Amino acid sequence: MTASKSSPTAWEPFTPRGVAAFAHARLGHLLVVQFVVAVLAAIAVDCFLDLGCFPTITAAIKQLPDQGDIRASQLKWHGESPALLAEGGFLAFDVDLEHTGQIHSPAQVQIEFGRKTVRVFSLLGYREWNYPSGWIVPFNRTDLEPLWDAWRPDILAIATGAIIVGLMLSWAVLATVYFFPVWLICFFADRDLNFRQCWRLAGAALLPGALLLAAAIAVYGLGALDLIQMSFAFGAHLVLGWIYLFISPLFLQRVSPSEKRNPFLTKS
Questions:
Q1: Closest of 128, 133, 132, 136 to residue 112, by C-alpha
Q2: Rounded distance, CA 204 to CA 182, Å?
Q3: Domain ranges of the chain
Q4: How do residues 69-127 score in pLDDT, each as one tens digit?
Q5: pTM to 2 decimal places
């Protein structure tokens, strides 16, 4: 493997050489690229919600009766039971007051409302929760339909902001965890980076995995991946980040041991 003699402009985090270039770039360059990747990830999640989840929720609300609520930790249901409300490729909703198990949906996540508990089924089995005590939650078409129509765009906006902020913060934390292993690799491979430069490289090394996961989420939302394949994609995005973390420093220019700088210097 040959290290490059000059670092390319630090704008592309797709190749090990491109990731290595962020070590010598300004912090602003890294933050801008991270923000762009975070926006792409947010768009992928929004597409998944808007195409894979929201239509099923809308259809389920339309199947609810005109009256009904969850009151005193119990569902007041004025319809047939068991009853399938709506079913999509990812989500399914049904009402089975006694949890008889008569409805088995091929959806990857099935949410079943019983008389006193709600069950969520998936490939990993199911979890069951009691309805909150002291709450009165509408469970009818008359109340939920206008509420859902009003909150649907707001949920997408909140999800977008939360994903962008969450990713930017998590990348900063992970870069703080990973920068020292990067420095060790550079030290033993005769690549001269101080701690700040190693932090920037570590932050950039996380982006290829994030792009992979964003693409997988988009494909998952279109129904081309199942939950098991999506789980593999999630694991792969972690492994890809580690691969870039260990390989990218080797694409920096090699220096002789006598030319190495003190890593505790603040100048980068």
A1: 128
A2: 12
A3: 16-50+151-255, 65-139
A4: 999 999 999 889 999 999 998 999 999 999 999 999 999 999 999 999 999 999 888 99
A5: 0.85
Cα separation, 24 vs 89, in Å, equals 46
Q: Which residues, 6+ apart, have CB-to-CB distance to 163 below 8 Å? A: 38, 41, 42, 45
- Helix H or strand E segment including 125: strand 125-130
Q: What letter would DSSP give residue 259? A: G
- Taking the alpha carbons at both ends of the chain, their separation in whole angstroms is 25
The Cα 60–Cα 94 span in angstroms is 8
Q: Which of 228, 226, 176 is nearest to 202 (CA)?
A: 176
pLDDT tens-digit series, residues 122-148: 988 899 999 988 889 999 999 999 999
> Each residue of 133-159: b (16+ CB within 10 Å) or e?
eeeeeebbbebbeeebeeeeeebbeeb
Does 82 sit behind a cis peptide bond, omega within 30 degrees of 0 on the bond before it? yes
Dist. CA 75–CA 94, nearest whole Å: 13
Contact (CB, 8 A) for 14 and 263: no
